[in-house]
Specification:
There is one protein chain. This protein is of the alpha/beta class. The chain has 2 domains: 198 residues, Rossmann fold, CATH 3.40.50.1980; 118 residues, Nitrogenase molybdenum iron protein domain (Rossmann fold, 3-Layer(aba) Sandwich). Helix content is 44%, strand content 12%. It has 12 helices and 8 strands. Strands 2-1-3-4 form a 4-stranded parallel β-sheet, with helices on both faces. A two-stranded parallel sheet has the order 5-6. A two-stranded parallel ribbon has the order 7-8. Helix 11 links the parallel strand 7 and strand 8. Helix 2 packs antiparallel against helix 4, helix 3 crosses helix 7 and helix 8 runs parallel beside helix 12. The N terminus is likely disordered.
């Protein structure tokens, strides 16, 4: 409590009375909060582990980057603690996905922005597409969070390395406005080349999968960008929504089972950030030879997992998909 009080006091001049009431009203999530930054350089707070990793590639040794969410957290349902809110307001830059991803943080982020937080809605910079069919562009943002009122965007832009490269440039742009003494764009360019090489590697990993096997059933609608980029087809989802918090009806599940049988699909790709019970239940309905494979979607993996960075996460996912589909 002493550290939290000191953090709030240090930022009171910037945040104002309204922010203080917001902070006190929030319920702590039980996760460790980023501490105030006393080091030399820019202080960046990212909402997810994924964007924290991307931002770290640009910031390097010229500042610090912390993630609000711990490894393994589902970004759709995460809620911030009061000290985490204080860290956002006092940071030089907050990197948020937006596009409706951080449902539990939307009001907090909007309030923090009103109270002076410098929030970059990086999902908008990654050229998102509509979640309805994956082909329509979203149009212009009608709110600070980048949520379009006429056509919702698919928020999972980080699943396409080409879009991440665009987001990295946007982060460099934001950092340049804060401190122009560092060539942030040069670092974004280097990272962009690494992402391009990663995309080529993934294409090579997935290329042996036969055309008839390039069909995916996923836990929820989180692999649209990955599938589009690497010539895969998502035929159904266990949870027919862009959020893992939604609940399928019995009719939805019956349709899924029927479709899997018709398409002769014997793998369901679940997620490390969400329970797999429902996916396993569907798999058992389809047949004994149907497997459930966990992919990294909403969070990077723990150290040693092979997925403890965005590049590692995408590469590991490709290897898991190729192995499951016969590549």
């Amino acid at each position: 409590m002493g550290q939290e009080t000191r953090t709030q006091s240090a930022g009171a001049a910037l945040r104002g009375t309204a922010a203080m009431f917001t902070i006190l009203a929030l319920v702590a999530s039980g996760c460790s909060a980023p501490s105030s930054n006393d080091s030399i350089g820019v202080a960046v707070v990212a909402t997810t582990t994924i964007w924290a990793d991307v931002a770290s590639q640009i910031v390097g040794d010229d500042g610090s980057v912390v993630s609000l969410m711990p490894v393994g957290a589902d970004p759709h349902g995460f809620q911030a603690s009061s000290s985490q809110v204080a860290a956002m307001v006092s940071a030089d830059l907050v990197v948020a996905n937006g596009l409706g991803l951080e449902v539990g943080l939307t009001n907090v982020l909007e309030t923090a922005q009103v109270d002076g937080a410098n929030v970059l809605w990086v999902g908008l910079a990654a050229q998102p597409v509509g979640s309805v069919n994956g082909s329509s562009t979203c149009g212009q943002s009608s709110a600070s969070t980048g949520v379009d009122e006429t056509l919702a965007c698919d928020p999972h832009v980080w699943m396409d390395p080409d879009r991440v490269a665009l987001a990295a440039v946007a982060i460099a742009d934001a950092l340049a406005e804060i401190d122009d003494s560092v060539d942030w764009h040069a670092r974004a360019s280097v990272y962009g080349r690494e992402l391009a090489a990663t995309a080529q590697s993934i294409e090579s990993t997935l290329s042996p999968i036969p055309d008839a096997r390039r069909k995916l059933v996923t836990n929820h609608d989180s692999l649209g960008y990955f599938a589009s980029r690497f010539d895969l087809e998502i035929i159904e989802t266990v949870i027919p929504s862009g959020s893992a918090l939604a609940e399928p009806s019995s009719g939805d599940l019956a349709t899924l089972v029927k479709r899997m049988i018709e398409e002769q699909v014997d793998v369901i790709f679940a997620e490390t950030t969400d329970p797999t019970g429902l996916a396993k239940a569907v798999a058992s309905e389809v047949g004994d030879d149907v497997s459930v494979v966990d992919l990294y979607t909403g969070s990077i993996g723990s150290p040693g997992s092979g997925a403890d960075s965005l590049v590692g996460m995408l590469t590991t996912n490709a290897e898991l998909i190729a192995a499951a589909l016969g590549g």
